Amino acid sequence: MDNTDKNSVLVVDDDKESITAISHMLTPEYTVYEAKNGRDAIGTAEEYLPDVILLDVIMPDMDGYEVLSALKESNKTRYIPVIFITGLNDNVNEEKGLALGVTDYINKPLHEAIIKSRVNHQIQIIRQIRTIERLNIDLENALITAEAANRAKSVFLANMSHEIRAPINAIVGIAEILMQDETLPPKVIEGICEIYGSSDLLLRIINDILDLSSIEADKLELAIEKYEAASLINDTALIPQGKNDDKALGAGVTENMRQFRMNLTSQLKNAVALQSVAKKAKPKEEEYENIDENKAYLREKLLHVQMVCEVYDFKAADEAMAELRQKKWSAQTKKNLDTISRHLLHGDYEEAASAAKGYADII
After folding, report:
1. Which of 54, 75, 287, 353 is the most buried (most CB within 10 A)?
2. Where are the domains of the chain?
3. Distance (Å, rounded) from C-alpha 114 to C-alpha 150?
4. What is the pLDDT of residues 294-314, one digit of tens each?
């Protein structure tokens, strides 16, 4: 074995015969350094940084306790394990050494098996510590790599989600406008409802992805909101069974929750839309719109749309328009609202704001 592959031991003793004997015992397995006094021991330890130090306690000038204290005060040598070699077997001296940080004791007279065993024990501990340190470094590097990959994934998902969101918003908005057209046949309305439901669910999934990216970036802000009954129904574990005329809701539980939510959402939206189309007795929209309270509400909402469009707040504008379209306005007002919605869907905020203000002024 080459010396560079061996662990190293520093032997410190003022007795030349003791140094020679210990070196002879350890040289086959370790690189051995020698020092005959305390000052040489400190210098050699700082220069070579041995893995273990065997230190005689009784020495002239600097005894083993003074050398141990100096080694522990140095940042370079404080973590090197020190084994005292001593003929002092009383508890007082042992407690003193332990208080200063000695690792172990070897009592004189010296026995080769004991010396090798005590040194090997410390070497094994050192090897385990170094293995753990290497593993920690590998773990830290793996964590850095994983975090970088996770950030890249989040950026990719966020960018892709934004790219997909714009056309999906357009599909949802146009489908919602067409759902209000009572001149269309019920079957067409039903198909539009399917388009609306599926697109709206896809938009929700995209929003969930964006929320996930925000969570991973620690930028998600939570807000307390009411939980609507419709959301509770959408989360119920039921699967629609059958198609077309067979619209009954079954009681099975799906393994694919996204598919279940898509199916159930479409069914509910279809039911609401078809019920609206099938109603025979409808109040006249003109009469509804001419009520002063409703006119004031319409004007207030249009001015609100104007305001949020001027600050490019698409979400607020879209929510306000969705609330307006739920009312029973006249054909002309519906047409005006559709115009504003089209401007919003194309990103023409200034045109949408101008249209909203113009319609509000003539009410």
Report:
1. 54
2. 3-110, 147-282, 283-363
3. 53
4. 888 888 989 999 998 888 887
